[in-house]
C-alpha cells in the first residue's frame, strides 16, 4: 500500500532539488558566462534625430553560445542577437570548454533525474530495499563533483581565440583580460554549492520520513501522513 508521507524537511529537499536542477540548466544554456570588453557604436549608428551617440555595449560569450549586437539595428530594442556560435560539438572554441560542456551536461542530467524522482518520494520512500533519499543524495553528490570539474576547467579555456576576440589580447588561461564574469558563471557556482547542500540534506529528509511519529501513523492505518 502506498503511504503518502509529507514532512517539512522532505518537501524542502524536493524543492531545493528542483531549483538546483533548473538553475544549472539555465546557466549552462546561457551566453552570459563572459561579458566582453565594451565596443563603441560606429558613426553610422548615430541617431540623427537625437544627435547623440549610443553608449558602448558589451557582447557576451558562453560555453557554446554568444550574444552580440547587429550594427544596423543598434538603436532598436531588438538589436541583440543571441544564439550558438558552434553548430556542433567540435566547433566549441576550446578543448577545455568541450570538457566543461561534457562534465556540466552529465551533472545536469543527473540533477534533472533526481529532481524528477524527488517528486515521487512522497509516495515511494524506498527502492530495492534502499532509501530513495539516500540514493538521490549520493547521486547529487556525484553530480556536484562533475559540476566542480567543469567549473575548474572552464577558466582554462579563456586563452582560446574566441575568448581573446571578446576579452582582448591579454586574456589567457585563468586570466580574464578585459572581460568580466557574467551571471551564468555565478549561478553555476551557486547551484553547485546548493547541490552539495541537497546531498547532505537528503539524510534529514530520510530521517523525517522514517521517524517514530510517521511509523505510528502508518500503524494507525493512515494513508496520508503530513508532519510539519
From TrEMBL:
Topology of the protein relative to the lipid bilayer: Multi-pass membrane protein
Listed Pfam families: L_HMGIC_fpl
GO CC annotation: membrane
Stored Gene3D superfamilies: 1.20.140.150
Chief location bin: membrane
Keyword Cytoplasm set for record: no
This protein's UniProt keywords: Fertilization, Membrane, Transmembrane, Transmembrane helix
Top-level taxon of origin: Eukaryota
Localization, UniProt: Membrane
Transmembrane segments: 12-35, 96-120, 132-154, 183-203
Gene Ontology terms describing biological process: single fertilization
InterPro entries from the UniProt entry: LHFPL
Protein family according to the UniProt entry: Belongs to the LHFP family.
Protein name: LHPL2 protein
Chain's gene name: Lhfpl2_0
